[in-house]
Amino acid sequence: MRPERAQLVFDFAEGDRTQVDLLGGKGANLAEMTKLGLPVPPGFTVTTEACRYYLERGEEPQSLRVQITMALRRLENDLGRRLGDVVDPLLVSVRSGAKHSMPGMMETVLNVGLNDYSVKGLAEAAKDERFAWDSYRRLIQMFGRTVLDIPAERFEHELDATKARAGVATDVEIPVSALIELVEEFKHIVQDATGREFPQDPREQLDLAMRAVFNSWNTDRARLYRRRERIQHDLGTAVNICAMVFGNLGETSGTGVCFTRDPASGQPGVYGDYLSNAQGEDVVAGIRNTLTLEDFAALDPSSHAELTRIMRRLETHYRDLCDIEFTVERGKLWMLQTRVGKRTAAAAFRIATQLVDERLITSDEALARVTGHQLAQLMFPQFDVDAERVLLTRGMAASPGAAVGKVVFDSATAVAWAARGEPVVLVRRETNPDDLEGMIAATGVLTSRGGKTSHAAVVARGMGRTCVCGAEEIEVDAAGRTLSVNGTRVAEGEVLSIDGSTGEVFAGELPVVASPVVIYLEQGLDAALAVADEQTGELVRSVDRLLRHADQARVLRVRANADTAEDATRARDMGAEGIGLCRTEHMFLGERRVLIERLILADGPGARDAALAELLPLQRADFVALLEAMDGLPTTIRLLDPPLHEFLPDRTELAVRVAVAQATGRGDEPDVAADVTLLSAVDRLHESNPMLGLRGVRLGLSVPGLFAMQVRAIAEAAAERAAAGGRPLVEIMVPLVGSVMELHLIRDEMDGVLAQVAAAAGGAPHIPIGTMIELPRAALTARRIAEAAEFFSFGTNDLTQTTWGFSRDDVEASIFATYLDKGVFTVSPFESLDRDGVGALIRMAVQAGREVRPDIKLGICGEHGGDPESVHFFHDAGLDYVSCSAFRVPVARLEAGRAALASDTAGGRL
């Protein structure tokens, strides 16, 4: 159906939470609460489809204006009031509501419908003149900032000046006469900034506010947030138009945000912030420090009791932590929003297992509610509790973690300093949505105002950033670039340490130690519990339960990329079920580098064979240790892959050294002659694009004996381990194959060496030979390559480079920021697999390989193997295993279990 003819406006009573794509998260949940019979102010939702139409064409569908009029008339008739009437006027809020929660990223306008006439009608109806003029100044301030793009500082400066003239400290103390004058000043600001008066027509206010919400979908901060959270840019936002209820009607009114469980720790029990005589934006903006729900219970026991009952009902209905916004208007409770709440990583694991124990969800559902990204956050270090420390103050523990960095006082500085490699802590009185870039760049966020439901706390929790908020003792002088706390002055550039788990703020740099979750992963549950307090112990048990459930559910095996016995042991402790990639080039660094130089500089077969003979026992010892560490588990060893010139001195430095020596008459000295010979070899091996040059299988075919030496070392190591009673399960991988003929040629040599070693040892374990699929041609000709390969391992780093034509070392710094900003992709293809391009090649190679060799083993050994989103693709594509760095093995295990459950729901693998 054409958008012009579609239903673009839905009353709250028409929808439900399943319509999140059309009504957005906020609209769908308002409809759901209405359906449940909860006290929701009436209203209607303009759909995401209308937003997309507007953003594509720059105008609304013709039918939208009519549909809004009809919905508005129904609302007016139901309430017996008209929008902006001069007697008891109806006022509405205009709020964004995308499918995915984007806290603070898009716009809201409250009190729409007020003008120079209706403000008097509102004062008369409410019997409160101060309330009416306070609401009017809020409308002009919010409308001016969000709809008319007037800098917020102009309004804030005038508001501060008004408070100073009145001799009051807070907004709620401004007398009515001063508010009336402030409204006039705000109107002058609008006239001066835009050249026109503040709109007096209520419907014009409504239409302009709706367009502002639509436009806020594409603000820089909204796009940045979506890129970080991997939210599609083409979804658009719904707009929710709701009858206003007022929390700023005196001390019997107020507004709050609450959670059915603590979103920071996961602890059960109602939890939240409340402000009396305030509107909703006051709570999340953090401009006044809030009261607790216990304080709210003392102020208004009846409303608190009703809220508690509703919170329990919503948590039971959604079977999850709920984030709720509410307003009390002169003792009457109204529900303004609910959604499944954002939470910290620790809270996610605790809440998931708590709900299982409470019989609200199954273990499968619990596993689906935690992510590999959250598990990775729990593996970050924590402050050493035994270290000496200087406590400056305490705030609210808003988002856990240990953050150490140089103090900065604005977002731009945070971004600039972080870009040059300096860890920073962003310090603000309170954050606002424009601080998002700085919050992303910082290691931690510290505010002097705001509660645990303020903008800083909510956004920090969502992105896993350490945050302490509401540290009231801190005085922030952003202009002077300093903060003061209890007589201590901290200037920009000095170091602070903040603990988001306790709310503590320390001077200087505190040392960090391994988290209990890492201790659990490396040493076991008992070891972790021995050093954990009660709360941390609960977390470790939750991680253990869900990770074990993931291991039971998953189909994908998880291996590690490890190059030494030490790496392999750590990986095995982390739960790795083998090694998917051992990069043998890492065994030639350090003191062995000279042996590679000797091999490269060999002037004949005799010298080359001598160099290889010297390398053989060293390689064999490496492989013996590796196979001993991974005894009984598959171990895939990749033959030498990088260009040989990487093992030689820098060409420019060497040329300068030779030139200087010759210019100073030292050209005949032995060390200079050696440098000349070395420079000749470096020049001979120099390539314009070495990543596409002499490396991988090409080395094996071009340097006689090189791969044969490595294969012999591997085979002899396996034979030695077998003779000692071990179970070596070794596999040899040939890199950078683009043609099956390359693999046939190299296999002829390899098979001969394996036969010789087996004969000499009186028998040896079977050693499968496979290849890396890291070139598009290899994927496209996988059917033929499978004839010579017993396994495929997809090298997705190089496959991404060669498919996109990207040089990873160059493009990430030069063009990726532009590509991300312009939406060419939403995440780096080196971070998360490009499913449409690289993924299509993988699927093609998987299918072709299995058609030729049904028992072919298929894996992936690029770092995509530890990326949560990519793991789901590899499961769906039908791979047997993923391989990643040891630290990411638990992440891959968890996500492989989640992928299996999602696949069961969706209908299976490839």
Low-confidence stretches at least 5 residues in length (pLDDT < 50)?
Answer: none
If you compute it from the alpha carbons, what radius of gyration comes out, rounded to the nearest whole angstrom?
Answer: 33 Å
Give the helix/strand class.
Answer: alpha/beta
Morphology call: elongated
Strand content: 15-25%
Strands side by side in the biggest sheet: 12-22-21-14-15-16-17-13
Number of strands: 31
Can you count the helices? 37
Largest sheet properties: 8 strands, mixed
> What is the average of the pLDDT values?
90
Helix content: 40-55%
Report how far the terminal alpha carbons are from each other: 34 Å
Cofactor: Mg(2+)
EC number: 2.7.9.1
Enzyme class: transferase
Family: Belongs to the PEP-utilizing enzyme family.
